[in-house]
Amino acid sequence: MRLLIYILILSTISMAGVIRVAVSANVSYAIDSLKEEFNRKYPDTKVDITIGSSGKLTAQIKNNAPYNIFISANMLYPETLYREKIAITKPIIYAKGKLAYFSRKKRDFSNPIALLENSEIKKIAVANPKTAPYGVASFEAFKNANILDKIKEKFIYGESISQTMTYSLMVADIGVIAKSLLYSPKMAKFRENINWVEVNPKLYTPISQGIVLLRSAKDNIEAKAFYNFMLSNEAKKILENFGYKTI
Q: How far apart are CA 102 and CA 147, in angstroms?
């Protein structure tokens, strides 16, 4: 009987701690809803979120930042961490992200490629491809549309896709952003085909987003619970509501 009580106490303690999750910036709006749903099952677990570009988060992880889970905007970074034995699980695709053109002002998006080339568009916010996977996808789309060299002088670079969103709202004429960022309540006033339109998916490789458990999560029951939750149907439903494609 004492043994049973001891086990119950241990299990209660083990699910009442803090887990630290490094999250790519494109998930910044969806993560609150994901945390809320997770805490319905694990109300005593605190989920500590750090948001940034996948490249910078990877650099922090390699320098022993105390994260338990890494949610990346692509598969490249978690695969690197797995090869280097910093991640303890093989990277799994949890969702696929999409690009969108966005303007805080009303635009004619019937021909977005021609719009980007228009002389009235002087500043285009785009994520830095050196640090943000959505920047890589944006450049791929520009190249495949044969406009990169024509418009690159207009670029304002965000170090993450969330910073790119900020630039799009404040200083740029148009931004190329993660479609998921448009599903925040504060973005509800902006309308499809008036303020934004999805980038033709044929122009870029689908943005397969990956998740891994890191070394510090080896004996962390709560981190494993959050990891499993991110691959669950409940999480997929939330991600779909934020414009992602799930598999």
A: 18
Whether residues 56 and 13 fall in one domain: yes
- Say which amino acid occupies 6: Y
Find all residues with CB under 8 Å of 39, minimum gap 6, and list them: 45, 47
Q: Which residues pair with 155 in a beta bridge?
A: 124
Tens digits of per-residue pLDDT, 159-198? 989 899 999 999 999 999 999 999 888 888 999 999 999 9
Whole-number Å distance between alpha carbons of 109 and 115: 7
**CA 89 – CA 82 distance, rounded (Å):** 7
Q: Which domain holds residue 147?
A: 98-203
Kindly state whether residues 102 and 191 are assigned to the same domain. Answer: yes
Query: Residue 11: enclosing H or E segment and its boundaries?
Result: helix 2-14
What is the token pair recorded at 7?
């086990």
User: Does residue 163 lie in a domain region?
Assistant: yes
Pairing of strands 124-127, 174-178: parallel
**pLDDT tens, residue by residue, 93-144:** 999 999 999 999 999 999 999 999 999 999 999 999 998 899 999 999 999 9
Look at strands 46-52 and 18-24 and give their pairing: parallel
- Distances 11 to 14, 166, 217 between C-alpha atoms, Å: 5, 43, 16
CA distance 19 to 11: 16
The answer to whether the beta carbons of residues 206 and 96 sit under 8 Å apart is yes
Element (H, E) at 229: helix 221-230
**Sheet strand arrangement including 18-24:** 46-52, 18-24, 69-71, 207-213, 92-97
In the block, residue with structure tokens 């990169």: 148
Are residues 102 and 180 located together in one domain of the fold?
yes
